[in-house]
Specification:
With about 90 residues, this protein is an alpha+beta fold. The protein has three helices and two strands; from the N terminus they run αβαβα. The protein has a two-stranded parallel ribbon with strand order 1-2. Strand 1, helix 2 and strand 2 form a beta-alpha-beta unit. The structure holds zinc ion. The site of zinc ion (ZN) has 6 residues, from helix 2. Its EC number is 3.5.4.12.
Length: about 90
């Protein structure tokens, strides 16, 4: 959840991503949290380590932040995201 938002006041259900009762509209992704809460002045030319290949929104944020390499465990299923990540480096 975004900083200051009580986890107990928001839904944690899984379901359709556009449902107001599902968690997806409210949670912050790990990539966003890592970039926003970094311990340096910026993340230009850094690597980011994530479990899964970033979603479309996080991929854009990673590119815009100047991160040059994404280390992930799971191979991307979406070819467009994979291509975008490679182009930014
Ligand atoms: Zn994401």
């Amino acid at each position: 959840m975004p900083y200051g938002c009580d986890d107990d006041k928001y839904p944690w259900k899984q379901g359709p991503e556009d449902s107001l009762d599902a968690k997806y509209l409210y949670v912050s992704h790990a990539e966003l949290n890592a970039i926003v809460n970094k311990n340096s002045s910026d993340v230009k030319n850094c690597k980011i380590y994530v479990t899964f290949f970033p979603c479309n929104e996080c991929a854009k944020l990673i590119i815009q932040s100047g991160i040059k390499e994404i280390i992930y465990k799971e191979y991307p299923k979406n070819r467009i995201l994979k291509r975008r990540a490679h182009r930014s480096g």
